[in-house]
Amino acid sequence: MLVTPALLLAGCERTLNALLARDPAAPARLDALAGSRLLIRFEQPHLQLLLHFHRGGIDLLRAEAFDEADADAVVELTPETLSEWISGATVERLMFEGKLSVRGRTYLLESTRELLTDLDIDWEGELARWLGATPAHSLAEGLRRAASWGLRAKNELMADVSEYVFEEARLLPGPQQRRVLRDHLTELEVATDRLEARLKRLHRRLTQHTSETQDTSEAQAKRLSDDSGETPT
Amino acid sequence: MSPTEKRTTHFGYQEVPVDEKASRVADVFHSVAARYDVMNDLMSMGIHRLWKRLTIERSGVRPGHQVLDIAGGTGDLTLKFSRMVGPRGKVVLADINASMLRVGRDKLMDNGVGGNVEYVQANAECLPFPDNSFDCITIAFGLRNVTEKDAALRSMTRVLKPGGRLLVLEFSKPNNPLLSRAYDEYSFRLLPKMGQFVAGDEESYRYLAESIRMHPDQETLKGMMEAAGLERVEYTNLTGGIVALHRGIKL
């Protein structure tokens, strides 16, 4: 059904624009990009998206009715390349490796990544819009303190549990004990290898000795039979 | 009796003189203008936004284009088009109804839309624009209220530039009998009650349901667009055919 992808895209657009609206740095970046259009072609799944930048955010449109001439830059990529690009790989490197094809104004790509990945959302400002500056600040301070206490409590709990399990109750080996055990096991492994090598050597010598003894006996027997054969003449 | 007086047209399920339809439709929209957006969201459960979104995606509008949004009502399409055409382009929001136009203008101004949008009170049957003026024309949920649909389509084709697109988003005929049955129950029983409850106007929403049933189906409208001089006419059924998006190109 046509409406389902439109719904997904509308949801993405709304979320993205809501986040951009809460980033104090976004308006300046959007001003610089306003009016630009970036056409993104995904190879797998086959999808064409047109990103239209305006002062209020980004319009995400499926690009069925648009062609390359409608866009300032055209990018062709795979989802893997997209994740690499968002993770910080440079456009130049991706292009050099043949993972990314860009036509048009390539700086649009860098500006888009900067806009989307450098989001610094001002939650306190958003709260202030709803509750007023003073209650919002108190609430934000409270949340920050609660978060910091939560983090500290979590670290202390981890340390206490670790100490009890490894040191007091000795339920599990600690890192030091594991290291000692690993050293002992390595020594045992080396000794076993050495013993195995010795056994092999002994076995080889024993085999060699047995075959030499057999050869000597056979030679003596032959000599004796030869000697007894000369007597009638 | 003169021939003009004898001619009638449908107003929902009623037959009314041709001259009366425009004023009756105007009354309906004067009545619902203030609550139009709320009712649209409520009646369609918000899906009308997706239908309009698809219309925008199919429009192919780009910076610098001239766009005409007929029966633009409260300006949903105009808002997006004004961003897409940028400062070099222009969007004309046209509606026959002054109340709807006023609500649309206020809403757009509240959204910071100004420089590239013009507002024109105009009848779609005789658009007050020169020939070959617009790159794209849209009419969303407006054509069924027009008295002379053929004249309106001819007028739109006239003002469209060669290569320009006309997009008609309008209620149509569901293609699944089960859906059709459920849709009838919804529109004739529930919809008027919702209209009464939210907008205090049951009759207007009864008219809405009736006018949808009287509107030409997908193939008929396609034929009408072709007869008006448009080429490569195609349509897409949305939500099982409850709504259809027709697109034609002037070559």
From TrEMBL, chain A:
Localization per Swiss-Prot or TrEMBL: Cytoplasm
Domain of life (superkingdom): Bacteria
Keyword Transferase applies: no
Keywords carried by this UniProt record: Cytoplasm, Ubiquinone biosynthesis
Pathway: Cofactor biosynthesis; ubiquinone biosynthesis
Disordered: annotated segments: 204-233
Domain SCP2 stretches: 16-115
Pfam families in the record: SCP2
Polar residues compositional bias, start-end: 208-219
Cited InterPro entries: SCP2_sterol-bd_dom, SCP2_sterol-bd_dom_sf, UbiJ
Protein family: Belongs to the UbiJ family.
Function of the protein: Required for ubiquinone (coenzyme Q) biosynthesis. Binds hydrophobic ubiquinone biosynthetic intermediates via its SCP2 domain and is essential for the stability of the Ubi complex. May constitute a docking platform where Ubi enzymes assemble and access their SCP2-bound polyprenyl substrates.
Protein name: Ubiquinone biosynthesis accessory factor UbiJ
Organism in which the protein naturally occurs: Vreelandella vilamensis
UniProt lineage: Bacteria, Pseudomonadati, Pseudomonadota, Gammaproteobacteria, Oceanospirillales
Gene responsible for this protein: ubiJ
TrEMBL record, chain B:
SUPFAM superfamilies per the UniProt record, alphabetical: S-adenosyl-L-methionine-dependent methyltransferases
EC top class named in words: transferase
Protein keywords: Menaquinone biosynthesis, Methyltransferase, S-adenosyl-L-methionine, Transferase, Ubiquinone biosynthesis
Annotated metabolic or biological route of this protein: Quinol/quinone metabolism; menaquinone biosynthesis; menaquinol from 1,4-dihydroxy-2-naphthoate: step 2/2; Cofactor biosynthesis; ubiquinone biosynthesis
Example GO BP: methylation
CDD domains per record: AdoMet_MTases
Similarity annotation: Belongs to the class I-like SAM-binding methyltransferase superfamily. MenG/UbiE family.
Protein name (record): Ubiquinone/menaquinone biosynthesis C-methyltransferase UbiE
Species of the source: Vreelandella vilamensis
